[in-house]
Amino acid sequence: MAFSRRLIGVSILSCLLLLSSTATGDDDISRAAPANASRSCNNPYRMVLVKLWIDGAEHESIGGLSAAFGSLLSTDTKNSPRLPATYTKPLNGCSSSSFKLTGSIALALRGQCDFLTKAMVAQAGGAAGIVLINDQEDLVEMACPNNSTVSNVTIPVVTISKAGGDVIDKYISAGKKVEIMLYSPDRPIVDYSAMFIWMMAVGTIFCASFWSEFTTSKENDFNEQSPEVIAGGSREEDDKEILNITTKSAFVFVITASTFLLLLYFFMSSWFVWLLIILFAIGGVEGMHSCIISLVSSKCKGCGRKKLNLPLLGEISVLSLVVLILCVAFAISWAATRKASYSWIGQDILGICLMITVLQLAQLPNIKVATVLLCCAFLYDIFWVFLSPAIFHDSVMIAVARGDKAGGESIPMLLRIPRVSDPYGGYDMIGFGDILFPGLLVCFAFRFDKARKKNVLNGYYIWMIVGYGIGLLFTFLGMYLMNGHGQPALLYLVPCTLGVYVLLGLLRGELKDLWNYDSESTRVADSLLEDA
């Protein structure tokens, strides 16, 4: 098990940079809009709800995006009409429809002509609005062609994804009466889910920092074992499981992550995402197993004494086997229901356990390595979010996080929670990398303070936790100011953690000690002092 824990730690840590950008959605949002007609081609792109009624029964709503032209939608349902949905004929909506559109919401497929032409044809046919169905799963921004500044369209124009169009087509093809209401409710400035994401991220790092304190029995350490055993046997076993990050491995992480990110960007498919789901489930099982076993063993010293010798697994305690079976069952249950509305709970539990375990396995030896690792991650994050569009004509990081080519599957290596007060639903998310990379530094600060016997205010740990929390708040503020676009969270987190650490070290005259710190040498020195 020790070898597998180390292997999983190395594998997961190498791929964590993939989703180090925090993403709360891939939509453009304007927060207020009057309900009146506009001839401008500069309307704000707003999220839209396409509310459905099937044979008179209210059905699910579909998310859409308004155009830069046409009528501006009402923000509530009271001022929004409920109208029948009718396909144009031809379906592309580029020429006059042979089907009557008067008093209905026209449905047209994307392609063959520009969006403005489709809207004008529908308007000329008497349609009260038009819904354009995209040929892909994203929401396209519909602008006027040739940089026009004025349009003659006075009906609302909305686009929906291919999946949304498939929902409507399913009922129309079945001969059912489909009615539509278009409206654009305002979104809250801050959703409550952001607070819970913040608490989960900070709480994960806090728990990982104190995990050894939570799970180490002082009575077992000092009464049942001799100092020689403590310094030798058990410590030696623990050290075998520790992955000490080096300057070289920091560069390798970034190169590996960049390569894997490009592979996902160019070759992403449902099977590729399924591979990530399987890897995540394996890592989650190992993380949950490790967390539960360490907690139970610290409280019940004799629980793991009964052993079994099994094929493949070798000698394993009954407790470990039972917990392993339960963890595997939990992971399989999550994978089988991963598209259910409650699946985020299982994903977050597996993810938090995995990250706590990784932060126990991987350790930074000093600030020198921390500076290299976090600066590389900092530049990586900025490049693949903000600068990659100059080369690939798309933000590679955000495209991968959205899962544009994943066939409806989503990458699981992030924490997510539903937006409870958002009329459009969706999730607030944070990538594992945004927790683990700063978390490595925070855990190092905890170990350094403990080794140097520093109190709370004179140490570094409390300032790292506070800095990390403030950095996350800056991240959420950045997403608000950028209208919900995913942000490279390390852009804010690295200065608020590593920057504060280095600044404090300079002010206290301890930067040299932090830069060249060797935990092993400190441990040996402390052991010699205790023996003396």
Automatic annotation (TrEMBL):
GO CC, alphabetical: cytoplasmic side of endoplasmic reticulum membrane; endosome membrane; Golgi-associated vesicle membrane; lumenal side of endoplasmic reticulum membrane; lysosomal membrane
Pfam families: PA, Peptidase_A22B
PA domain: residues covered: 90-166
Superkingdom of origin organism: Eukaryota
GO molecular function: aspartic endopeptidase activity, intramembrane cleaving
Transmembrane spans: 192-211, 250-268, 274-296, 316-336, 342-362, 369-387, 429-448, 460-483, 489-507
Xref: InterPro entries: PA_dom_sf, PA_domain, Peptidase_A22B_SPP, Preselin/SPP
Keyword annotations of the record: Endosome, Glycoprotein, Hydrolase, Membrane, Protease, Signal, Transmembrane, Transmembrane helix
Keyword Glycoprotein annotated: yes
GO biological process, one term: membrane protein proteolysis
Entry annotated with the keyword DNA-binding: no
Subcellular location: Endosome membrane
Signal peptide start-end: 1-25
Bilayer topology annotation: Multi-pass membrane protein
Location, primary (coarse class): membrane
Function: Intramembrane-cleaving aspartic protease (I-CLiP) that cleaves type II membrane signal peptides in the hydrophobic plane of the membrane.
Family: Belongs to the peptidase A22B family.
Name of protein: Minor histocompatibility antigen H13
Organism: Solanum tuberosum
